[in-house]
Design goal:
Layout (H helix, E strand, L loop, with lengths): L4 H8 L41 E6 L7 H12 L8 E4 L10 H9 L3 H5 L3 E4 L23 E5 L2 E5 L7 H13 L4 E5 L15 H13 L4 E4 L5 E4 L6 E5 L17 E5 L4 E8 L2 E8 L4 E8 L12
Parallel strand pairs: 1-2, 2-3, 5-6, 7-9
Antiparallel strand pairs: 1-11, 4-5, 8-9, 8-10, 11-12, 12-13
Helix pairs in contact: 1-6, 5-6
């Protein structure tokens, strides 16, 4: 029987780490409001699209094989025309239901065919619906590992298996995070340790295990899925958290109204993210299935000040 996250809480005996509420960095005008400009309009982009920056996309909870996944997949491919991202990160639940060869075709290879044909790599994490054998599926680039890291320029990504956060994985994270000399350290995983979702909410036992490691080792940004919507959280203990679990499934109206943690929530349609890291700033856009930019902004690296104020 594998050790689950909740079992580990009693094994470790650690106390819950309290989340400190902090004010959010000013974002570009329109980031907090209604859907903005259409993705097809390059003049509407808030991404600088500069040379030698790290450009990637974020999708989560994708593996349905349904209409919405294919529609988001088309938008994701079309976005490359104005923003040539180099890879795609997957937040888990890569396959719902059957996970045989035909399922990988229907639920991954076909909806993202144009992106795969352009030699864009996908880097997956495992969700609670995923067969762990997915780690051997070459297009997921997991190299047979349930958790792993990879580096792109000044950015190192730490891909975690949040479904089975066994002590060996915690020990691995304790070792690799402080050893990394990357300017940006970005973990991502399936389960969010902060969430305003009514269905699931924050994974507090998981937070106990890994948040101190994030806080003490220079992590600036964390991505997750699991909740079938988009949420940008107010910074918690100096770290920016994003949930993107709505790239095929949708849990409409599930973000808790009046949540003190939510900086921006979107639970009325499917979505995906585009992200660009240029020196000491991380720019992002979140795009709905309609093609509208529903959130955008800038996250500064630790110890730096934002170069763009809201309304500029």
């Amino acid at each position: 029987m594998p050790v689950t996250r909740r079992t580990l809480l009693s094994l470790t005996g650690q106390c819950l780490v309290a989340a400190a509420a902090e004010s959010l960095l000013p974002f570009r005008a329109g980031a907090q409001g209604l859907p903005g400009a259409h993705i097809g309009d390059p003049n509407a982009s808030t991404l600088p699209n500069v040379k030698d920056s790290i450009k990637f996309a974020v999708i989560g909870d994708t593996g349905t094989g349904g209409r919405e996944q294919y529609q988001v997949g088309k938008l994701l491919n079309d976005a490359r025309g104005r923003f040539p991202y180099e890879f795609v990160t997957m937040m888990g639940d890569n396959m719902y239901g059957g996970q045989g060869p035909s399922d990988f075709v229907k639920k991954f290879e076909t909806p993202y065919k144009s992106i795969l044909d352009a030699n864009i790599n996908f880097y997956a994490t495992l969700g609670n619906h995923d067969d762990p054998a997915q780690r051997f599926y070459k297009p997921f680039n997991m190299d047979g590992k349930r958790y792993y890291s990879f580096r792109k320029g000044d950015v190192e990504f730490f891909v975690l298996d949040s479904t089975y956060m066994a002590p060996v994985q915690v020990d691995w994270l304790k070792d690799v995070l402080p050893k990394s000399n990357a300017k940006w350290k970005i973990p991502y995983m399936h389960h969010p340790i902060y969430s305003s979702g009514e269905k699931h909410g924050s994974e507090e036992d998981l937070r106990t295990l890994i948040e101190p490691l994030f806080r003490d080792n220079g992590v600036d940004v964390v991505f997750a899925g699991h909740e079938h919507f988009y949420e940008r959280l107010k910074p918690q203990q100096g770290i920016y958290y994003f949930t993107e679990g709505g790239s095929a499934k949708l849990r409409e109206g599930n973000i808790r109204v009046g949540s003190a943690m939510t900086a921006k929530g979107f639970d009325t349609d499917n979505s995906f993210m585009l992200v660009e890291i240029a020196k000491d700033q991380m720019f992002f856009e979140t795009i709905a299935r309609t093609g509208k930019v529903i959130d955008s902004g800038i996250v500064p690296r630790h110890g730096t000040t934002p170069g763009i104020k809201a309304g500029s």
